[in-house]
Amino acid sequence: MSYARLQHGGPLRRLIVLIGLVIFVIWSAAPIVWLVLTSVLQQRALIQQPPDLALHSFTLANFTTVLASAALLGHGMVNSLIVASFSTSVALGVGAPAAYALARLPVPRANGIAFLILATQMLPGIAIAIPLFIVISRLGLIDNVLSLGVVYLSFNLPIVIWILRGFFLGIPFGIEKAAAVDGAGIFKTFWYIILPISWPPLCASAVFAFIEAWNEFFFALILTRQHAQTVPLVIAQFAGQYQTVFGQLMAAAAISVAPVIAVAVLFRNQIIRGFADGMMKG
Question: Keywords for this entry (predicted)?
Fold first, then answer.
């Protein structure tokens, strides 16, 4: 809802919308705020009921301890960066042409194909975990960042296709007709005309796919051992068998989410425009 439309509404409507926005912001920001608070609190202050939030309870010792094991956390972040970058780049490289074909070309049963692509996301991961493990194990690709990237690609590709297809459906056909008059074929039209105006949904799709791959835990747990561990698995190692130092656990989590938050803030305008265009047009 735009600000102009909100101004035309009555006082009660504006108040309801304002209250809803405040609740949404608090609901969204509360986990991040609690993550930061927990990462700088001492263990004794965290285990109290309620937690002791006095000034003397705050410390940076948790970050010092985590950074002392920087090699372990850095190894996980590098693996996550490789896997997430691979799955995101390939998903965009394959998904953008596929979405364009389903949206603009005379593909038989394009809507049905698009629905089947999206339906793959409805299958729970646990249902394919065992057969997937058997296949990758027989290929000798357990504990390999490439195999993990391919698995993440199978999850990211449908979402990328769906978002971009919605945007491509909203592009006026006159643009392609004008390109055809100038002698441009399908590939030139897609590469030189469609892609340049698709920057917002491409950014939104890329950030969404990157975050999904960066945060994934389940398949990384069953498909990796030591060499290809991603950052969620490294963070889980801060939970001990007999005691969990929550401050160190949250400090590691805060360090790991910092790059993702930075990317989301940097491309926030493109993300908002991309999701609005990709999910509301067509």
Answer: Cell membrane, Membrane, Transmembrane, Transmembrane helix, Transport
- How far apart CA 83 and CA 148 sit, in angstroms, is 7
For residue 46, what are its two tokens? Answer: 């965290």
Strand partners, 137: none
Place 274 in a pLDDT band, splitting at 50, 70 and 90: low
The domain that holds 229 is classified in CATH as 1.10.3720.10
Longest dimension (CA), the chain: 73
At 87, the pLDDT band (50, 70, 90 cuts) reads very high
115-151 confidence digits (pLDDT tens): 888 888 888 888 888 999 999 999 988 999 989 999 9
DSSP annotation of 198: G
The total of structural domains in the chain comes to 1
Beta bridge partners of 58: 41
Residue type, 48: Q
Q: What rounded mean pLDDT belongs to the chain?
A: 83
Tokens representing residue 194 in the block: 């469609």
Residue 29, in any domain of the structure = no
Residues 6+ apart with CB under 8 A from 272: 204
Does residue 232 belong to any structural domain of this protein?
Answer: yes
pLDDT at 7 over 90: no
Q: Do the domain assignments include residue 19?
A: no
Residue at 263: amino acid letter: V
